Amino acid sequence: MKRKRSTISIAFFILVGVVPFAAAFIYALLYSFGIVGVVNTGFTTQFWETVITSGEFFKSFAYSALIAALSVIISVSTALWLTLKFRKELDKKFLSYIIYLPLAIPGVVAAFFTYQLLSKSGFFSRIAYQFGWIQEARFFPDLVNDQMAIGIIITFITVVVPFFLLLFLNVYKNERIQELSELSASLGAKPNQVLWRISLPVILHKTWVLIVLYFIFLLGAYEIPLILGQESPQMLSVLIIRELKQYDLSKISEGYVAAVIYTVTVSVAAVILFSKRKRIAHEA
Amino acid sequence: MKLSWKPYILSLLVILIIFPFVYLVLLSFASDWQFPNLLPSYFGSRNWQMVVGSENGLLGSLTLSIIISLSVATISTLSGFILSRTVSYHSKKHTLTLLTYFPYILAPVVFGACLSYFFLKIGLFGTATGVVLAQFMIAFPYALIFFSSFWGNRTKSFENLVSTLGGSQWQSFSKVLFPMAGGMLLICFFQTFLISWFEYGLTSIIGVGKVQTLTIKVFLFIKESNFFFGALSCCLLIFPPVLLLYINKKYVFNKLI
């Protein structure tokens, strides 16, 4: 009876946790090779060749990876600096609540807000006009839908910094870094040594999986680059959805090629990341 | 006397945090704001009054978002709790857990686009039920991973004790496990509620614009360049989470590390 119940549970787990992902992946794979699809006629590697030779997907991948890496590096550095400099102040009642507020802002709202502030007719442009720095809206620099993805990076940073700040403050407390620092100082360590050999290694060792996870999340971010991005190159998810939703049905398979490459890359990253995490947990 | 720069940085931090909330609330009360005016020509409650009247469907979107998020949170939390027990006690625990990470780590919008064919086939494309099911598929892995730390030797000992004393599995769940996991269940409910509440990409793909949650509304207003109603939708979108975060802020991060 117990065994039967366990089998049913596992079957249900596979049905809701594994089957949808497997079905989505297999469907995308079959579509990318022309085996399924409205206008496809049979197995072909033509779509894969087109995607690989055109280079647009890989350009988009590199562009997304660069934006995600830059945003994560700046966010983690800022959050670390704030944690190490202001941890006592941020522990006080008012500030300890205030720093949670940004978590209530979803990506779509953050992108909307950035657009309101940084677009050519946005709030900062109006201020620049009032100060006489610009004579017309078009003279305001391109900060959204721009080539350098400044709007996207700023929004990513504003969304990610609060998360890492709260995370690092908790690690600082839970790992008793204050006590460790005092102990090393009493043993003769200089402030610089305490920072580079105690505080930073402990915090980063404890949170590196989440840092890498955030890089992967930003790599596949959709709403923010959809509102603040440009036509070309586009970030990965925006490019994939654009390809999948286009009117030219013969091109949809190329969208599925992109989706398959992205899914395989992210899945391999997940396997490496979590098997490594498991090993570290065992060693600890 | 050495002047400290810390209060200035902290004041700037507080302003940066509060500014978006204040700006969006003010923008939601405004209309007719031409460039280069620094202030709008109209400032009043007209936009908010329209929410009560159903002209723009915002009240409907708010209700729909609440129903979808509550459904996703309830189903994900309960199924995540029960199934995480099966996974945690299974001999292939690590492989099964790894499998749950795949949908969790993948961009929901890409996941949804690849799944849309199946939703079309089972007749759930463009329906609220379809959106609930799709959001459940990304909230469930979170719930499952979240509860995996609950099932250990201590919990197993309690279950064995109930069994030794003649209790059934149902009694074990209802009298021991659910009360023991009360706090965690609440946090998981909040988190999965937020996953659903903030979701845009997957909802837009599976809902095909017919299921207009608040995030979809924000996008529609941006497309129409109706920034005042966009700001109003943003306000409706961010204030419920502010309340939820206040309630469970103490626990959020302890469970993440």
What does this molecule look like?
The complex is a heterodimer of chains A (284) and B (257). Helices cover 73% and strands 0% of the residues of chain A. Chain A is mostly helical. Chain A starts with a helix and ends with a helix. Chain B is mainly alpha-helical and 257 residues long. Chain B has a single domain, classed as MetI-like fold. The longest helix of chain B has 32 residues, at 58-89. Chains A and B meet through helix 1, helix 3, helix 4, helix 5 and helix 6 of A and helix 1, helix 3, helix 4, helix 5 and helix 6 of B.
CATH topology of chain B: MetI-like fold
What is the overall silhouette of chain A?
Answer: globular
Helix/sheet category of chain A? mainly alpha
Order of helices and strands of chain A: HHHHHHHHHHHH
Enumerate the strands of the largest sheet of chain B in spatial order, edge to edge or round the barrel. 1-2
Q: If you compute it from the alpha carbons, what radius of gyration of chain B comes out, rounded to the nearest whole angstrom?
A: 23 Å
Strand portion of chain B, in percent?
Answer: under 5%
The helix content of chain A is over 70%
Family (chain A): Belongs to the binding-protein-dependent transport system permease family. CysTW subfamily.
Transmembrane segments (chain A): 12-40, 60-82, 94-115, 148-172, 207-228, 255-274
Domain ABC transmembrane type-1 (chain A): 57-273
Main location (chain A): membrane
